[in-house]
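ugh finaly. both done.
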Amino acid sequence: MTSLKILAALAGVAVISIDLLDLVRALIVPRPHVGGIVAWSSRGLRRLYGALAARRRTFGGRDAMLSAGEPLILLWRLLVWLALGLAGFGLIIWSVGRVGFEQSFVESGSSIFTLGIASEPGAVPSLVAFLAAGFGLVVVALQIAYLPALYDAFNRRETLVTLLESRAGTPAWGPELLARHALVGIEGNLPRLYADWERWSADVAESHTTYPALLWLRSPHPTNSWVVSLVAVLDSAAMLLALNPATAPPEARLAVRMGFTCLRDIARVIRIPFDADPMPDSPIGLPFGDFAAAVDRLGSAGMTTERTAAEAWPDFVGWRVNYEAIAYALAARIDAPPGPWTGPRPHEREGLNPLRPIDRRPDQPEGTPATRREPGPTG
C-alpha cells in the first residue's frame, strides 16, 4: 500500500468517525447539538431560505414558503450524513482495493444504499462493503426513528396552541384572553389554563432544546404560532398579577416563571443574548399607552380590577422584562405571525389584531356587527 493510499484510508476513517459522532450527538444524545457540519450547513440553509422567503410581499406568502423550509432541511441533514459516509468509505475502498478512484465511490454508494450493483472480490474489500452497508442502514434507521419523536413533540406543542384560538383569538393576544373569559363569565377556568401552560412550557423547554428543528416548524394555521401564543399567556398572567394582586391565582405566577425559563433555555441554545437578572424597573418595548388601552378593553368586557392601569404598570413591567426581549428576538428570527405585543418583524410594518367572533343569540340571530381584523401594533 502506497503512502497516498494510507493517507486516504486514514482520511476515510476520520470522515466516517466525525460523521458518526455528529449523527449520534444530533439524534441520540438528549442534549442540544448546535455544532458540526450538519448543524452549520442547516443554519446556512435557513438563512438562505429565509432570504428567499423575504422576497414575498405578504405574510401569507412567506408563511406558505417557510412552512416547507424546515422539512426540507431535515431531508438535507440525512443527505449530508449519507454523503459524508459515502466519501469516507469511498476513500477506504480505494485504499484497500484495486479499483480506480472513481469506481471506489461507485462501490461505496452501492454498499451504503445496499444496492449490491458494484462490489470487488476479496476479504478486505468485502469487509469494508459490509461496514458501509451497516452504516447506511444505521443512518436511515436513526432518521426514521427521529421523525416520530420530533412530530410527537410538535403535536403536543400545537394542541394547546390550537385550543388557545377560542380563548385568545388568532394571533393570540394576552388582553384578549382575559377579556373573553370575562365576557362569558369563565374567569374561574384561568387557574387550570395557567397550570396547563406551565407544563407546556416545561415540555417545550425540554423538547425544543433537544430538537432545535422544532423551533422552525410552523403551525398548521398561518396565524398561529407557539411563541406568539406563549407571549399571550405570559402577558395575560402578568396583567392579572399586576391588576389584581390580591385575587390572582398562584398558577399565573408559576406560568410566568416557567414561561420565561423556557424562553431563556431556548435562547441559550440558539445564542440569543439576554439579561439573566434584569432589574424590575428596566425599560420595556411595550408603551404604557398600549397597556392602558388594553386595561380599558378589559373594563369594557366586564372584568373588575383592584388597580388602575397606572398603578399596575410597574408590576407589569417587572414581570414582562423577564421575557419580552427574548420573545421579540425569537419571533423575529422565526418570522412568527405579527400578533399584538410580540415586537416588530423585519418584513412587516403592521401587526394583526385577533378577530373576535360574532355573538349570536336566539333573541339576536344577526348578533352584533362582525369584528373585522384591523391592523394593529406589533410592539
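ok and the 2nd:
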Amino acid sequence: MNTRTNLAFAALVAALVLGMLGDALLRVIPWGLNMCLWILTLVAVVAVITCQTSADTINRVWWMALPVIFCAAAFIWRDSSTLKILNVLALFILLALTRRMMKAGQIRIAGVAEFAQEFAFSIYNTVAGLVYSLFNDIQWQEIAGKGWSKPAVGIGRGLLLASPLLLIFSILFMAADAVFADMVNLTFRQFFDDFFSHLFWAAFYTWIAGGVIHDLFLEEKKENHGDTRPSSLSLGIIEVSTMLSLLNVLFLVFVIVQFRYFFGGDALVEVAPNLTYAEYARRGFFELVTISALVLPLLLVLHWLLRKENPKHEHLFRALAGAQILMLFVIMASAVQRMRLYQNEYGLTELRLYTTAFMGWLAIVFIWFAITVLRGRRERFAFGALVAGFFVYIALVGLNPDAFIARVNIDRAKAGQRFDLHYAASLSDDAVPELIAALPDLNEHRRYYIASHLLKRLQSFNRQDWRSWGWTRAKARRLIQEQDGYLHEAVSQYLSQ
C-alpha cells in the first residue's frame, strides 16, 4: 500500500475504535468523566499518528494538547451546562488552531479572514472528512491485494454460509426446550431494542473522529488568500471617513444627551417618571452590548476595505476609529453600570453573568485592536483576540459561575432582598455547597424549598452512571448525604406547621 492509503486505513481503524468507545461512554448524560476519557483518547490517537508521520510536527504542536486537556478536564471539574457548551466551542476552536499549526507551522501571524477560513475548513472536514477517506484516500484495490485479505474474505464467506444453519438449529432447539426458547427470545429482544441505537451512536462518533483525523492528517493544504483584498473590492478614505465621522457624531450625541441617564443610577430612577429598574437596566444593557459587539466587525471590515494609498489616509482612519473606540468604552461602562443596578435589584443569573463576561472580553479585544490594527499590525489581531477569549473562558471555569451566582443571591436574601427560590434550586450541582451552607440563615419556607429540591437531587444521583462522574457532582452528592438528616428535618418541620 502507498503511504496515503496506509495512513487513511489506519485512521479509519482508529475512528472505528473511537466510535465504539464513544457509543460505550457518551450515550450517558450528563457528560463528565466519559467525555474527558473520550477526548483524551482522541488526543492520544492524534499524538500516535503524528509521531508516526512526522517527528517535526509533534515538536511544533505538542503544546496545543495542553489547552485541549484543560477543556477535557473541565467536563469533570464543573457541572454547569453553559460551561460544557463553552467547553465544546473551545475544543472546536483549538481543533482549527491545531489544523493551522500543522499545515502552516505557526498561528500567531494570521489575519482574521485566514482564521475564519481555518474554522470553515475544520467544520467542513469534520463533517465530510470520513467520506473522503473512504472513497478517495483509501485505495481499496491495494488493500484487497494484501495477504491477510484472503483469510478475511474466507471468514466472511464462512459466516454467511453458517447463518442459515444457525437459524435452523436454533429454531429446532427452541421448539425442544421452553427454557432455551425464553432465553433466546429475551436475548434477541434486548439485542434488537438496543441494536439500532448503538449502531447510530457508534456510527456518529466514528464519523466525527474520522473527520477530525482526516482534517489534521489527510486534508491537503489549500491555498489560503488570508486577508488579501481584491482590488475591485475597496473603499477610499473619503467613503470610509464619511461613514466613521457620521457614526462618531451619532455616538457623541448619544453620549452627551444621555450622560445623566447613563450614570444617574438610583437617584435618576427615583426621580424620573414611569422609569423602572427593568426599563433602565435590563433593556438598555443588552442593547448596549449589541452595539458594542457590532462595532468591532464594522471597524475590521472598514480597515480591510480601505485602500492604503497614502499614509495620511491610514492616520485619519486611526484617529476616527480611535475616537469611536473611546466613546464605545463610555457606552460599555454605562452597560456595566446598568447591569450592576439590575443585579442589585433583581439578583444575578447565568445570562447576566456570561453577558458581562462577554463585555469584559470585548473590552480586552478593543484594546488589542488599538494596539495591533490601528498601529499597522493587523495580522497579529486575530490570534490575540482568540487568546483573550480562551483566558476569559479559563477565568469562568475557575470562577465556578453557578456557585458564584448562588453566593451572590444568597447574600441578597440574607440582607432582606428578593431571592428567586426556583432559580436557585435549578442551578447545577456546582451551586450545591453554597445552597447547603446557606440553609441555616434562610427562613423556614426558603429552607424547606431548597432542602426538598436537594433531596430530590440526591435521588437522581443514585440513578446516575459512573460515566457521568464529575468532581463537583461527587462533592455535591457527598454533602447532601452528610446533611440528609438535617434536610429531612427542615422539610418535616415546615410540613408539620
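summary for the 2nd one i guess: The CA atoms of residues 243 and 302 lie 9 Å apart.
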